[in-house]
Structure formats: structure tokens, C-alpha cells
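Re-run requested by the PI after the first attempt was lost when the workstation crashed. Everything re-entered from the original request form. Ligand of interest: beta-D-glucopyranose.
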Amino acid sequence: MKKTSLFLFAGFLAVTAPHRPLCAAGPAREARNDRVERAIDSILARLTPEEKIGQLLQYSGRWSDTVVNRGITLEERALIRQGRVGSFLNAFGTGITRELQRIAVEESHARIPLLFGLDVIHGFRTTFPIPLAQAASWDPAAVERSTRVAAREASAAGVHWTFGPMVDIARDPRWGRIAEGAGEDPFLGAAMATAQVRGYQGRDLSDPTTILACAKHFAAYGAAEGGRDYNTAEISERTLRDVYLVPFKAAVDAGAGTLMASFNEIDGVPSSANKHLLTDILRNEWKFDGFVVSDWNSIGELLNHGIAATRAEAAQKSLEAGLDMDMASDVYRDNLPALVKNGKVSAKILDTAVRRILRIKFRLGLFDDPYRSCNPETEKSEMLTPSHIAAAREMARESIVLLKNQSDLLPLRRDTKTIAVIGPLADNRHDPLGPWKGLGEAKNVVSLLDGVRNAVGNSASVLTARGCTISGTDTAGFGEAVSAARCADVIVLAVGESMDMSGEAGSRSTLDLPGRQEDLVHVIMGTGKPVILVLMNGRPLAIPWEAEHVPAILETWFLGLQTGNAIGDVLFGAVAPSGKLPVSFPRTVGQVPIYYGHKNTGRPDTSNEHFSSRYIDLPSSPLYPFGYGLSYTTFSYSDLTLERQSLGTADTLRANMTLTNTGQREGDEIVQLYVRDLAGSVTRPVKELKGFQRVHLAPGASAIVPFSVPVASFAFTGLDMKKKVEPGSFILWVGPSSVGGEQTTFEVVER
Ligand code: BGC
């Protein structure tokens, strides 16, 4: 580093800010925050308008054409020297990030460190299960650990910032991005959002093993009409606030330093120009003091939306709405200089956006050490370590959901002689990485076939056949698959989706098994041998035939590097499955959207009444409900008691319930607490999750499971659009899923 920059940074050494929560109280914190704000004042005073605008620009090559693949171009060097880049997208690796950073802090007039962003969604090199799978663990501590590993690896490769967690509620499984989030429920979604923000950001963002989180996509992106990606979200302000915004608020409360604006519009206003979302709610109501980045080209897309006639108008609307950084559209770069110069955009608004970005750079400690994560030794030693791989296996085991286990077919007996592992996902190391695989590589994936072989060693013979591809129409491989099945004592049949059938732009119009896989299931079932269906997919699939006919079904989603070992652990009973569905599985796509927390309607489907809210050709209920999942043991629920049946709005509800392991094996149960608010100023969902706990019990053992639920958590947006708890009668359930369980009632009174 040159002398001049040393001097510059020395001035900032004392002002690295704490980060959690971002708007933290406490005199020491306030003093440090004040010092940061004063440091930002002096930076702003010396920057030219062009350099200020530079901070708002996230530079990216196009897709594979990034600095990592082709090195830094002369043009890029010049842009950084001129202070026209605030952040780089898809730049990682200590060599390249150190060099980019060196140019920024040593050769530019602005001398402001760059921020390196990358999509680290479920792991960096050690690929963990996709986020939907992780949510199926209902284990926020495990999710925090897996996210911490992702942060350690990514930060060791020079990455400062991830575009995660994705906290979009998704109630339509046609939408491919359901794979990236925590499913349909705001309470579970909020728990997962908090866990991921903590995992990425650690205790203090200035710790170089952390990365900055970005809660996305703000907001209601998952409500895309028809499940078609990027489509319009047509939802009410109340549903927005009570459902879709809940995990975002949790992420902000957990200290997430950034948010990403979504592609979609809500009520006629695309998020990238939505002042109500980005300023009224996010800044004014929630007091968020980090910054907001656009989604890829979403400012430019304001023209397609038809809310800006020119790119200049798009730039103005976005910045004025509260969108601070432009990802990849170049709209800010090309238009803000003139808009600021001619006074159409005020210098104050520009300064506010720059301030938010600089504040986060301070919190990351970049002004103290711009090379905070540029150590090639650490870059080597942090990747794919045995403890990271062990964490991936642990997370994958917990993500598996046992949907059916007729006659206790599972776990498989260790003395099984011949096992046939069949299907297009049996010997597949590519697709189990899932969408947004990061830097995960197929060569490091343990396939299902590998996992079964690892589990049985030499004690059984393992046959395999693909049968068909995932989406092709060729059935020529069926014969070989049937022959393998006929020679086996048991068949593990792995079917599902390819990794690119979910994730961004991965919407589907059906939820069936793609290609000829359904036929493959039929012919294998035709052999009369016992079959365990292993599903690998990024969304709920509609599998009514399989649910009825196949004796055992495991939902394994996309489990990442340790796929085969984790499934092997479950198949052979090293662990009992314990995951529960974070999203309802419909019987057919025609039931979509289907979610447990729906409204009752005036004519609920509670009987065979013709004029009720139902289908004439299908039950209204899902195939597998939210919260559902079996174990190798069984649990009974009894003695649900409440400390008090009458509570004030500021009280805490305390419930106890006895859980007993009534089976022959040890196991984990996820005990779930739901409430129903029977009457309000506006209608309320028929059930809302308000608590859950993972409980481990030995066979025959019982435990009292205590819940403490603040009555404040029953608040909702009333007729007056204010969020509060309304007095009245409630039903409370504690049970194994969103269906059934022990039930009681309580009252909330005004006091
Ligand atoms: C996606 C974001 C992602 C961004 C950067 C966009 O297309 O919608 O989720 O973070 O690209 O890769």
C-alpha cells in the first residue's frame, strides 16, 4: 500500500462500527456510530459527484464473462481508478479481489474500498442442501451453522457480500424459486431468515470470516401470478404486511446489512421504484440503516414495466424511492450525472444513498483493512474441510422428510443381500447440487449410489440402472432397470427433477414427475419387489399415485455434496428421519395455491355440502400437509395445559405438553404450536404457526415440552391498518403437523 493510502486508512482505524443490530443502542455503540457518520461526512466532502455516483454502481461482466474467467481488462482498471465502481458482482478468489482492491484503494482519487458480492445461497465450495431442504429441518441452529460454513469459505476467497438469504414466502410450487426460500409460512420463514443472517454475519461484521447478508427479494416476489417467474404480485397491503414482509422484518431485526429489491410489481408499482416499500416501510417504520441493491437490471426493466418512459426517468424514480445501488443495468451510471448536475435529482438524495453504502463498508471493516479476506493460505485451508463436510452431512440428514413407510419397510435391514439403486437420479452427481450451486462441483458429490455402497460396504451387492433420463422420452433403458429390480431384494428408486427445473426462471406448469419417470415407477412397481422412492426435487411434486402405491417415500430435495451419505444414513437407520415439510404438497397442480394458513371463507369445506368451498372432483386438502413428516419411531401427544386461560395483550402464553416416544427407536420430533384467532376486525387464517421445537427422545421416554409465546405475536394488521392484537377467543393446538394435535382454547382480554 502506498504511503498516502496508509495515512488515509489510519484515520479510520478507530471507527470500525459494530453491526448488530444495525441501529444498535447503548452509549459506546452510539459514539462509534457517530464517529462513522462523521468519517462519512468527511469522505462525502472530498468526493466529486461522479465518484459519489460510482459508489452506487455494481459492476458485473455478463454471465460467464467475469473478471474471474478472463482477468481484469484495461477498461475495468480505468473505471476503478476513476472511482466509477462501488461494488463488483461475481468477483472472487484472493488473487483477483486483492488486485481489484489495490487499484481502488491505491490508484483512485476516491480511495474507497470495493465490495465484492456473489450469490452464496447454500454453500460456497461445500454445497449444503438447498434452502427449502434446510427449512425442512426446522432447526435454526443447524441452519445457522451451515450458513456460517458458507460464510467462512466465501470470505476466505475474498467475498464480502452474499445475495442471501432469500426470504420470499412461496405458496405456489410452480414458481421455481420456491427452492431458494423456506417455503410457505411467515413464522418458519422468519426463523430461517434470522438463522441465516446470523450465520452469514456472525457476531460482528468486521470479523473477516463473516459476509454481509442481503435479504431478498423485497418484496412479494414469491406471489408471482400463475407461479411464472418475474410475474406481477397482486396482493393486498394487509397480506403483504402480515405474510410476505414478516421474514424481511426478521432479517432486518437480526441485523441484515442489505436488502435486494424484487423484480415484480405490487399494486402497479415495481419494487425498484417503490417508495412505499423502500422508504416508508423499510426506513421509516423499521429503521433499517443499511442499503438496498436492485436486482439484476431491475432498474432498466422499469421501462418494460411501463413506469418510466426513459432510462433517465427510471434512474430518478429508483433513487428517489430509496434504491441505493444499481446491479448491472448501468442506468444510474448513464443518467445520474446529468440528473444531479441539472438539479433534477437532489445532491442530498445522492449523498444519502452513498452514506448508506459507505456505512456498510465501514461495518465490514474495509476502511481498516481493505484486504480483509485476501489471504491465499486461508483460501486453501478453509475449503471443503472435514468439519465442513461433516456439517453438510448433518444438515442433509436433518433435511430429509419421510413421507410414507408402510409396514416399516425402512430402515433397511443390514442383512439385505441385494439392493438395486435405480432411476435417473441414482448415479447422478450433478443434479443433487441444486440450483445456485455456488462453486460446488459434481466431482465432490456423493451420489445416492455411492452413499448406498458406502453404507453397505461388502455386506450386500448393489446393482444399478438408470431406466431413463430425467426429462427425455426414451424408455429403452426400462428393460435393464426391470432386470436389475428383479434380481434385488429391495429397490431404491431415485426420481425427480434436474437442478435447472427450479431456481430462477425455473417455473413449471405441472408438478408431475418429468419425462417418463412416472412410467418407470410403474414398471418397477410391476416387479412386485419392495420399493423405496427417493425424491430429489426443488419444489413440492404432485405424486398421488406414488403416495397410494409405493410403500416407502423419502423426500430428499437437493441435498448437496453429501447427498448419498445422508440418504444412506437414513435408509439404513444410522439416523431416523426427522424433517417436516416446510410447504404443502398438493394432490395436483389444480389445487395451487395451497397452504395451511388459508382463510375459512363463509362456506368452509367441512362437510359434503355441495355449496361449499371445494372441488367437485378432488378433496380440498393437500396430499401431505405443511409440517408433516414421519420418523422410524412414533410419538404421542398428551396433557396439553395452559398456565392461564385468560391473557392480556402484553402477557406471554405458557403451554406445556407431554410428548412420549411410543416406538422402539430413538428419534427427534418437531413439536409444533398453532393458534386460530376466531374473530377479528378482519378475517384471520384457520391456523397460524407460532412456535416449534425439536425434541429428542429415547424409546419409551416422555418429556414435558414447554412453550412461551408472547401474546404480541398474535398481532395482525386490522381494519385500521394498524398492527395489534385484538382481544377475543383463540384455539390452540400442539401437534406433529398443521393437521391434528392436542387442542385447547384461551382468551385474550384488554388489560
Ligand atoms: C437474481 C438474484 C441474484 C442476482 C445476482 C438475479 O437474476 O434474481 O437473486 O442475486 O441475479 O446474481
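Saved to the shared folder this time. The longest helix spans residues 27-46.
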